[in-house]
Predict the structure.
Amino acid sequence: MAINIDLTTVWAFIIAFAVFMYVVMDGFDLGIGILFPTFQVGEERDQAMNSIAPVWDGNETWLVLGGGGLLAAFPLAYSVILPATYPPIIAMLLGLIFRGVAFEFRWRAPRHRPLWDLAFSLGSLVAAFCQGVILGAVLQGVRVENQAYAGGWVDWLSPFTMLTGAGVVAGMLCSAPPGSSGRSKARPRYMPAGSPCTPEYAPWPRSRRSARRRRSSITSIGSAGSTCLASWPRHRCRC
């Protein structure tokens, strides 16, 4: 019996999965950038940057996969949506470029570190806001005639898209933990995320002592897991 595979459905699932993974994986990167000015200058900001250093550039690959999949599988939708949202897309790309450059040059130019910190924060804020604006523009609808975009350069601009942009920015942030006060209330114990599961994915310790405890706990869990995995095939053979 032949199995019919609908490639349209498959590609739609791939694109949706790529966008979902981008929101989950890159959400905490953007959240850290948005809340970056609330961190104390020095070790606290360095810890924040170090927490995303191994993954920040790789997380954005999911966005490339989503856009490339849209171009490859749905070229008509690609040719309509992009002209309708060119301004926010360009602004989003500029924000991502600025935060990437600021991330690298922050360590290479200590004298201008405050400037690069500001660029990192503004780039993250602009990128998150523009992503919400693009989402709102797609949801509110695009004018199409003869399979081509028939709207203007600023048809995407509306109160609804501004609200969706603000909503995405708010979604990157986490509420302050109970009992916090003062400067610490401006950001949570763990860093913001695009989903509730991300704080467990990328927390960073507040002190070196907690970092050592965390590393020792991870080492113990890893050793126990390795022992179980090593003994599992032998137990399986006995059955």
Remarks:
- The chain has two domains: 7-204, 207-239.
- DSSP finds ten helices and two strands in the chain.
